Amino acid sequence: MSQGTVTLESRELSKTYYSTDPPTEVLLGIDLSVRAGEFLVIMGASGSGKSTLLYSISGMDKPTSGNVTLEGRELTSLSDAEMSNVRLTRMGFVFQQPHFLRNLDVRDNILLPALKGAAKGKDKDAAIARVDALMERFGISHIKDHGITQVSGGQLQRASICRALAGEPSVLFADEPTGALNSSMSDEVMDALTDVHRDGTTIVMVTHDPGVAARGDRVIYLRDGALVDANEMGPWQPDTAQQREDDLLTWLRELGF
Amino acid sequence: MRSTTVKNGERLYLRYAYNDLSRNKGVNAALIVILILSAFLMATGSMVIERLAGSISRLSEQGKPPDFLQMHLGDYDRAALERFAADHESEIAAWLVEEMLGFDSASLTWERPSTGENGDLAASRIDNLFVTQNAEFDFLVDWTGGVVRPAAGEVYVPVLYEQQYGLTAGDVLTISTDAGPHRLEVRGSVKDAQMAASLSPSSRFLIHPEDFEALARAGGAVPEIIAEYRLTAGSDANAIQTAYEGAGGLPTNGQPVTGQQLRIISMISDGLVAFALVFISLVLVAIALLNLRFVISGSLEDEVHEIGAMKAIGIPDRAISALYLTKYSILALVACVVGGLLAVVAANALTQSIETSYAQAPVGIWTFLVPLIALAAVYVIVVAICRGVLGRVKKIEVVNALVHGSTLDEKQTARRAKREARWVRRTGLASSSGAGVNRRLALLDLRAEGRAWVLVPVVFGLTAVLITLPANLVSTFESPQFVTYLGAPERDLRADVQFQQGVDDVKDRLVAAMADDDRLTDVQTYAYVDYSADSADGRARLRVEVGNHVDGAIRFSQGGLPQDGQIALSILNAEKYQVGVGDDLTIDDGDESITVQVSGIYQDLTAGGQTAKMPGEVTEGASAYTVFADLADDGADPAGIADEYGEQFPTAGVKPTQEYARETLGVLIDSMRGAAWIALVFGLGVAVLITSLFLKLRLTRDRPKMGVLSAIGFSANEIVGQVRTKTLLVVAAGTVVGLVFAATAGQSLASAALAAAQLGITDLTFIPNPWLVYVLYPLLLLGAGHLGVALLTAGIRRADKSQWL
Ligand SMILES: Nc1ncnc2c1ncn2[C@@H]1O[C@H](COP(=O)(O)OP(=O)(O)OP(=O)(O)O)[C@@H](O)[C@H]1O
Ligand SMILES: [Mg+2]
Predict the structure, then answer these.
(1) B268 band by pLDDT with thresholds 50, 70 and 90
(2) Is residue A130 included in any domain, yes or no?
(3) How far apart are CA B512 and CA A215, in angstroms?
(4) How far away, in angstroms, is B712 Cα from ligand 1 center?
(5) A95 CA → ligand 2 middle, Å
(6) B745 in contact with chain A, both atoms CB, cutoff 8 A
(7) Minimal CB count within 10 Å: which of A217, B152, B205, B448?
(8) ipTM of the complex
């Protein structure tokens, strides 16, 4: 799919939680288009519905109304099993907390989706080779045998990115991937994501941090469940990083961030 | 000032308890249900036992049953009885000879003039004995305890018949005698302290002496007597029995029974279900305690931050524990109160039939104290265990709690990290792929978190024991092979020629007829010969079964078959005569005395468990005979042939051997089957409950993991599948362990219980119904686990997966 075509799209997307009294209307009819290869950043105040939007367009949660299409395929009508398969083969996730399985070592955690997607034999060997290459690339092959309690947060988050990429997704979703990290670890992780983006993977990321958001191609701003503005910034370059961040901050201030 | 702070503190505890109770509704509901069940069964069982004991002794007070009795069939020497009484004047307070007329059930019919209804009592397997009221003791009483004296032409029927056939005042009972029908008007029912137990093989009808005379003259009845003794305070019934049997010349052609045995039989036949309830409740209490431990440790881990914070601001450990303890004390208290109230209702229902057969027990202090003590014990144990588990609060370190959110201290954390590191190095997930990943993950989870899952297999193990043990007992007692515990070979037909005049003649004609019968083969006769021997209490009668004893027919617990010059003794007799295998025993048949060696000791339930066996052949002069025969054609119906012989030899008691076992044990088996059903229903209910409770807590903890798996691409079905795999694996493991335990240790336990009941069995080998115990029950338990999984994972498919992260 060439740069510029819409790969992920939501129409009239709404989400209401009925578990509360009165029901909480979190998303109020969101129309969103994500272009193939784009690095899209979702910002907004706490509680504005950023996470809800991310999980609704990635099929983790069922929207109350509206629809979502990925690569021309309508996601909202898929069964749970079909949707899981889409997540397995077309999507990757990185969360604020790395959420690894405690009883698997780092490499097995990363391998998990790849193994699940792979049939026996060649397929599997290819998956293992791919994962080892990813770990090498993100500088964590030396910790592959470690338990997840034995490595640092930055390493774990890079491992998360490896896991997200292990299935060769077309879109990577990240919900505040640096939210639990200090600034140097945060940079490590964002460098990794920027790298992934350069390779052509579409990224949709939620963040609070303007410095982190500056890495994106485009920032959209969410307020009370509605998209209020968007900021097209173009590809990130290390030398213009500070300038981008300042511009972004000004824009955000105007929106009342 | 001080008192207000205490009050405030208490209110805080209560508020905390209230908040927690309303927050974790599901878990608390499951906990309280288990606690209520435990309390309920415990209280019900103890109430029923107390009521039963009370009813039995109340009826004893009213009816004054004998302390020792000897049944007898045939002529007897009254002067000898008088001499015996005079010789033992200091021990015997009163004695009498009860004369009875035994009629076959088939010769009794009834009709109800008001409605024209009628019927017969032929289906009854019980001996029907017609008697007159006694003067001094052994009274038949009405429901108020009053001594009943029927007028001429009237009859009072046993309560049993009132219950089973609905015989009431106004009905007419007709007895067919040789001289024609004898009609009596039913005036009511009587309770019988001597024959009240549902295991009792006979029952008494009360009539006027005139009718008694008439019936005796009319013929058709088997006259029997019972020599009955009331002893003075402090006298030993066993000693009197020994003296009686050793005296010589006294009527002994029948079963001797002591008052103690009467009470034990009553307790066993009518109290078995109550004892089973107590047993079930003990298992439930154990399960409830395991659960509490699990839930409390869980909530300590969940709330470790709060605990750390409380500790940091200086709240003492005891106050923190008290915060939690309040909740569990309230739960336990509510459970005991609710369980106790429910028990009152259930115990009332259960004691109704007891009160009908025995007497209404007087309500005394123990009526309330017994169940209260039982409930208090449940409460105290529950609270004590909670307190013990909450002791962990003391060990929680502020820094670890606040910073790492861990209940463990540094050393424990380090140990745990090491353990986890060791685990993960061995996982080798890469060896699986595709759908196999699910199974692999489930197994890895179990391996790593095995300790957290241990509750489930333990509970299922206990449940498996709880449901298979009674089932094994029932199938063992019901098994065709069980007759060997009755000291009898596994043969098709059995005839008992006993307790009557002319036994030799009847036996000879029967054996001749059987030998001529083409349908029968292998006719064999055993003779009962009375000897006397020295027992612990003095000289006593020893009835020996003489015949060709074969291997496999007798359950030896030591030694083996007797050869010439040897004798085998039942367990109770070996105890009575204080001999073991290899010892010599001198026995005396009245003419001469011989010394025989004990070859073996075997288990026997018959004749009060007191039997003996010697090889040889005795064709005349024995006091009774048993004749066994096999069917030539295995497919033939033994009952039909038995009936034929029964008509030809009405006094020979010809029966299919299996029916003999059923008659001996029928009531016992019925009440055990009741207990087995109760155990099954409660066991399965508890299994579902515990699985649900466990999974509820487990799944709450596993939510982040489920969220990740879902994001990675595992479907809800696969995640549920993993939960199911894990659950069913631990359920299966627990069930297998439980079954093995029930088959081994459970068997020893059952044997020990039977040995304690002094019935004559000390070493029971289960004869399980394999389809039931090893196929159906495990499947039911797996089903219970499955149901728990289904209930608890129902919401997973619909859930928004992001909520788990
Ligand atoms: N399960 C739920 N039931 C009810 N309300 C919910 C539920 N989940 C989220 N909400 C509400 O929806 C709103 C949006 O939540 P969401 O997590 O999407 O916000 P967010 O923008 O990601 O906030 P943050 O920056 O704090 O992560 C919040 O007001 C939250 O309280
Ligand atoms: Mg969020």
Answers:
(1) confident
(2) no
(3) 111
(4) 22
(5) 10
(6) no
(7) B152
(8) 0.93
